[in-house]
UniProtKB/TrEMBL annotation, chains A, B:
Domain (HTH arsR-type) ranges: 16-94
SUPFAM superfamilies, per the entry: Winged helix' DNA-binding domain
Annotated protein name in UniProt: Helix-turn-helix domain-containing protein
Pfam families per UniProt: HTH_20
DNA sequence: CCAGGTGTTCGCCAACCAGCGAACACTTGC
DNA sequence: GCAAGTGTTCGCTGGTTGGCGAACACCTGG
């Protein structure tokens, strides 16, 4: 499987990141990764079609929020670009993740 | 002038806030208010039509990011809902504002 | 009362976005 | 080689968004 392209850490744009996070499905992806990195795309328990899911992963990847590497078999290994995000936007990811649990507990528990 | 309605602090939604902030003109408004509260809408140095500006203020207001009160004369006094945002989403606003200066310095200096 | 200044609202338009299914690509395993 | 499994891409659709100008509402000052 072709490796996908990712923005460099220093090219990560705040508007792209905020836009990527301003959507419940994508937020759930991020939140799930924050709890357990390295999952393939299909393991997020989101009730959307494959194509829609793939599009959401693409938005997150192109915003620089997640990294998608070719994993074993045909899976994509998704990881949060935690350190890079923290270096560029200190505290942002953590405060957003904390905010989600405050504002959208259903998502947090589901 | 009619007073405008604002969401209660506890009803502020993280997705609405992130969406509101994921736009350079609106971000500039927030950033300007962070530096100096209480300005009328026309004093933000944004090169957009009045109607577009008004729409952006509406998005920010309905998201709970800013408060718009009827000021002296016909002006709206815009203020950041800093304390309320901080209470609900601790650290979020500050990290976003800091992130903007990192990611969009042109906006910061303009 | 009328003019000037500030914002809001209303159409309108082009662009974007989230959703889907179908088809394709790629790897593993039989 | 072929089926199964996982993601991606493409085309399409409906809804939302951001932009504008024009018209209106409202207050202040002549």
């Amino acid at each position: 499987m072709k490796p996908l392209s990712h923005p460099r850490a220093e090219d990560i744009n705040i508007y792209a990141v905020l836009h990527a996070l301003a959507e419940p499905a994508r937020m759930k992806i991020v939140q799930t990764l924050a709890a357990a990195d390295g999952r393939p795309c299909g393991t997020f328990g989101i009730n959307l079609s494959k194509s829609t899911l793939s599009a959401h992963f693409k938005v997150l990847r192109e915003a620089g929020v997640i990294r998608q590497e070719t994993g074993p078999g045909n899976a994509r290994l998704n990881t949060l670009r935690r350190a890079e995000l923290n270096a560029r936007f200190p505290g942002l990811l953590d405060s957003v993740l904390q905010a989600v649990e405050e504002s959208d507990p259903a998502l947090a528990s589901g």
